[in-house]
């Protein structure tokens, strides 16, 4: 117990002694500070003023022995250094919250102050050079040591805390911004050469060298040994290590500065680094094409930056690398490549030199599939590719790596063993060299543009330089099936690059082909009801052309159907040409040719010549939508027909006909025809039996019918029907306005029905055989017709008949007495002198 008590008293005495010593020390330091502090401040400020070439503003100057003990410090608060005179619009060099100049405490007693350390807090340092080479950082007067001077700046250590350093070289086009948490620079100065060690934590927030951005916003821990030669304007990094993103890098090389064009030769290397962490560090200009992907694995790489920078010049950036256990996952899809092993090199774009990526070898897997090969990719903007690939892949497992925005819901198996060299850019004019085989089995996908689903896609393809030979390709879409063989040109560029053309020659076979399935109307409805379409919703895609021989067992479009269809089609610049075709349709046969021009984008122009033989006329009108009119419809007609038709019209991208655009000429022959329930004919019921008019039969009818400006024009014709012998002509608009001129024999009127009103005297004329012919004029509309006697037609008919009779009489007299009469010359001379000649008026 006594032992413990003595120990406690001893401890108390020691603590008291230490406290007394500290108090005495503090008192002594305070006395020294009061005694020598003002003198030290005056000497240091005076010496700084001798060396500064520019004015400096200082809010407050302090002297302290306590802040950096055992060193004494002169502290400047709120410091601002102005730009040099004549530097134009140069910014100030420095704005700092505090700058401490440190020197040994014994300098206070000797009177000679050696400034060995500078501590800068919360500063903004701006280094600036204009296009003429003037700068704002040459603010310290150069000169040799002075004998007997009281203050010597022998700075061996500089500390920056919570500061930012900016450097801008207007002439060279370089712009840097570095954020510093804490950086210490230690070293020694021998004339213009500074040997220094640098350590600390910083972030290169802006690193624009010439036209290129190398900014790194991740924090970097740095340890480096450098040699700065101020006369040569070079920084030699003898050894450096930095840690960023949790990975360690080593750096060495040479960097020049201060000139319009400067040189650099830097080497950066990393071993077995986490690729995902590195990906975050790489400047965005190098990773923009991979923004939707997440890479993984381990990377060993060596990056070299060599060449001139500044003056719109950029150094050459090259890298050699190897990857182990790599992966590449799409951020929005479940697609993932894994088990990647690769080695290769990369050269970044510099000036007119294109970037280049080379995999000397690679291999990996995608789900149940696998791949291996080698690749050279030059110029990512206009890619030139040299690829050797062996792969067995499932489309649903590589969907994210397929053309974006074109297809979805892909499935099926792809097997490829190919070699390809060429460009995906037609403007590059690089000839393609390709060989190998590609096969698709049980594949399918949905086209994003119009929602069409393609299924049961099976193919055997052979690459032959710039062409893809299709030995076999079959697919289904909607109700249709297609199988083809042929030659596709520029297929790779069309699939993987935008704005690339595709052309193919093919033989196409189909058991059933529905036009809606291969040119769906849904593509045009996206523009909205009543709005015009555009190129994106056109019937035919841009930059696709073909020559094709077609054979189809059954072809349908809406109400139309045909069997045993054959023909030749070509598509170029959205113009579909049908060179010749034949088919069995409408219980007869059809052949012809035509053009469908979709260059307008929002609509198409149709022109065709068609021959119809022994077709069912009722089916003809029904399956062609009554040719866009509502006057004479399929329900009105029966019979068989031959026809030669010239047809033209404008259709929408939904294959809807613009009635006003329809123009047609049809030379018709109708056999065993019937006119059933034709409303305008019912008006004759006042003269003929109404029941008979409901179903008018005729044996043969020949005429030319024209359609123009929404009007059906019927030239004059004669119809010998089961009811009467009828002659007439007229027109019938799509709006059901009618204008018919008819005439018929009075002897056929009233055989079974008594007329309610006798015809006026001027409405008839005596025809051949003493028969009287009645002339009628039918106008108004189908729903409200106006029936009247046609006196003008009688006058015209009589005038035409009289003119014809005059012509017949004139011809007879000419034959008998005219100068053209063929007769032997007279024997009597006198008789030959007699001249007998009749001159006839042409009217």
Main sheet? 38 strands, mixed
What oligomeric state is this?
single chain
Provide the helix percentage. Answer: 10-25%
What percentage of amino acids are in beta strands?
over 45%
| Mean pLDDT rating | 77
The assigned structural class equals mainly beta
Radius of gyration: 50 Å
Please mark out the parts with pLDDT under 50 across 5 or more consecutive residues, or reply none. 21-36, 521-536, 750-757, 761-766, 829-843
* Head-to-tail CA distance between termini: 165 Å
Q: Tell me the overall shape.
A: elongated
Number of strands: 38
Count of runs of 4 or more consecutive helical residues? 10
Describe the protein.
With 843 residues, the protein is mainly beta. Helix content is 14%, strand content 53%.
Please describe the structure with a list of short key phrases separated by commas or semicolons.
single chain; 843 residues; mainly beta; 38-stranded mixed beta sheet; 10 helices; disordered C terminus
Structure described in brief:
14% of the residues lie in helices and 53% in strands.
Task: Annotate the secondary structure layout.
Elements: H1 2-51, E1 56-64, E2 71-81, E3 94-104, H2 107-110, E4 113-129, E5 151-169, E6 174-190, E7 193-209, E8 212-213, E9 220-229, E10 234-244, E11 247-256, E12 262-274, H3 275-281, H4 284-287, E13 293-309, E14 316-330, E15 336-347, E16 356-366, E17 369-378, E18 384-394, E19 407-423, E20 433-447, E21 453-464, E22 467-477, E23 480-489, H5 491-496, E24 502-514, H6 515-518, E25 544-557, E26 560-572, E27 575-585, E28 588-597, E29 603-616, H7 617-623, E30 637-652, E31 663-676, H8 690-694, E32 695-708, E33 711-720, E34 725-733, E35 738-745, E36 764-766, E37 772-780, E38 785-789, H9 791-817, H10 829-833
Parallel strand pairs: 4-5, 24-25
Antiparallel strand pairs: 1-2, 2-3, 3-4, 5-6, 6-7, 7-8, 7-9, 9-10, 10-11, 11-12, 12-13, 13-14, 14-15, 15-16, 16-17, 17-18, 18-19, 19-20, 20-21, 21-22, 22-23, 23-24, 25-26, 26-27, 27-28, 28-29, 29-30, 30-31, 31-32, 32-33, 33-34, 34-35, 35-37, 36-37, 37-38
């Amino acid at each position: 117990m006594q032992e413990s008590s003595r120990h406690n008293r001893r401890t108390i005495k020691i603590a008291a002694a230490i406290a007394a010593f500290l108090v005495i020390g503090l008192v002594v330091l305070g006395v020294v500070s009061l005694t020598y502090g003002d003198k030290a401040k005056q000497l240091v400020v005076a010496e700084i003023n001798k060396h500064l070439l520019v004015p400096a503003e200082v809010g407050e100057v302090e002297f302290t022995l306590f802040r950096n003990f055992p060193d004494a410090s002169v502290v400047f608060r709120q410091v601002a250094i102005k730009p040099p005179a004549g530097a134009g619009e140069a910014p100030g060099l420095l704005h700092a919250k505090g700058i401490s100049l440190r020197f040994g405490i014994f300098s206070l007693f000797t009177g000679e102050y050696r400034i060995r350390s500078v501590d800068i807090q919360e500063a903004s340092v701006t280094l600036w050079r204009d296009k003429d080479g003037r700068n704002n950082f040459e603010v310290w007067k150069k000169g040799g040591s002075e004998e007997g001077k009281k203050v010597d700046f022998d700075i061996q250590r500089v500390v920056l805390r919570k500061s930012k350093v900016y450097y801008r070289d207007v002439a060279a086009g370089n712009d840097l911004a570095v954020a510093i948490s804490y950086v210490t620079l230690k070293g020694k100065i021998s004339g213009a050469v500074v040997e220094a060690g640098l350590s600390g934590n910083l972030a290169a927030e802006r690193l624009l060298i010439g036209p290129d951005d190398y900014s790194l916003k991740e924090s970097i821990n740095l340890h480096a040994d450098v040699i700065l030669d101020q006369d040569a304007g070079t920084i030699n990094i003898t050894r450096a290590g930095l840690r960023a993103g949790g990975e360690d890098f080593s750096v060495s090389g040479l960097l020049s500065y201060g000139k319009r064009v400067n040189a650099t030769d830097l080497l950066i290397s990393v071993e077995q680094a986490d690729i995902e962490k590195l990906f975050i560090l790489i400047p965005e200009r190098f990773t923009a094409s991979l923004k939707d992907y997440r890479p993984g694995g381990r990377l060993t790489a060596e990056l070299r930056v060599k060449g001139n920078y500044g003056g719109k010049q950029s150094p050459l950036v090259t890298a050699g690398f190897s990857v182990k256990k790599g992966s590449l996952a799409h951020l929005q899809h479940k697609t993932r490549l894994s088990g990647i092993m690769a080695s290769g090199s990369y050269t970044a774009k510099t000036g007119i030199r294109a970037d280049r990526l080379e995999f000397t070898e690679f291999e990996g897997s995608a789900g149940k599939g696998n791949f291996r090969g080698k690749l050279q990719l030059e110029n990512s903007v206009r890619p030139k590719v040299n690829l050797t690939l062996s792969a067995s892949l499932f489309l649903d497992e590589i969907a994210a790596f397929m053309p974006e925005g074109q297809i979805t819901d892909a499935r099926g198996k792809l097997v490829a063993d190919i070699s390809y060299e060429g460009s995906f850019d037609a403007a590059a004019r690089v000839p393609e060299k390709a060989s190998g085989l590609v096969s698709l089995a049980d594949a399918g996908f949905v086209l994003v543009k119009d929602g069409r689903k393609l299924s049961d896609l099976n193919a055997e393809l052979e690459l032959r330089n710039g062409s893809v030979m299709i030995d076999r390709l079959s697919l289904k879409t909607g109700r249709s099936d297609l199988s083809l063989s042929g030659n596709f040109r520029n297929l790779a560029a069309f699939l993987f690059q935008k704005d690339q053309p595709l052309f193919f020659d093919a033989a196409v076979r189909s058991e059933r082909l529905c036009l809606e399935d291969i040119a769906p109307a849904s593509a045009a409805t996206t523009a909205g009801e009543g709005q015009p379409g555009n190129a994106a919703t056109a019937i035919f895609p841009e930059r696709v052309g073909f020559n094709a021989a077609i054979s189809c067992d059954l072809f349908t479009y809406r109400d139309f159907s045909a069997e045993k269809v054959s023909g030749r089609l070509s598509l170029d610049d959205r113009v579909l040409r049908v060179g010749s075709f034949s088919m069995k349709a409408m219980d007869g046969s059809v052949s012809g040719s035509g053009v469908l021009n979709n260059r307008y984008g929002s609509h198409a122009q149709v022109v065709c010549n068609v021959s119809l033989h022994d077709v069912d006329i009722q089916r003809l009108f029904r399956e062609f939508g009554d040719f866009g009119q509502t006057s004479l419809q399929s329900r009105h007609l029966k019979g068989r027909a031959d026809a030669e038709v010239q047809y033209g019209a404008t259709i929408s991208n939904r294959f809807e006909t613009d009635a006003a655009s329809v123009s047609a000429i049809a030379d018709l022959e109708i056999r065993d025809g019937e006119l059933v329930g034709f409303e305008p004919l019912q008006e004759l019921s006042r003269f003929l039996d109404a029941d008979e008019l409901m179903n008018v039969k005729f044996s043969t009818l020949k005429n030319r019918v024209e359609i123009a400006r929404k009007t059906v024009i019927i030239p004059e014709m004669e119809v010998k029907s089961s009811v009467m012998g009828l002659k007439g002509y007229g027109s019938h608009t799509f709006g059901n306005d009618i204008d018919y001129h008819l005439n018929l024999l009075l002897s056929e009127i009233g055989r079974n029905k008594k007329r309610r009103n006798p015809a006026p005297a001027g409405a008839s004329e005596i025809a051949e055989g003493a028969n009287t012919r009645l002339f009628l004029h039918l106008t108004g509309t189908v729903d409200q017709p106006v029936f009247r006697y046609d006196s003008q037609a009688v006058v015209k008919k009589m005038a035409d008949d009289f003119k014809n009779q005059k012509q017949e009489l004139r011809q007879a007299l000419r034959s008998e007495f005219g100068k053209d009469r063929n007769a032997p010359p007279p024997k009597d001379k006198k008789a030959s002198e007699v001249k007998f000649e009749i001159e006839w008026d042409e009217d």
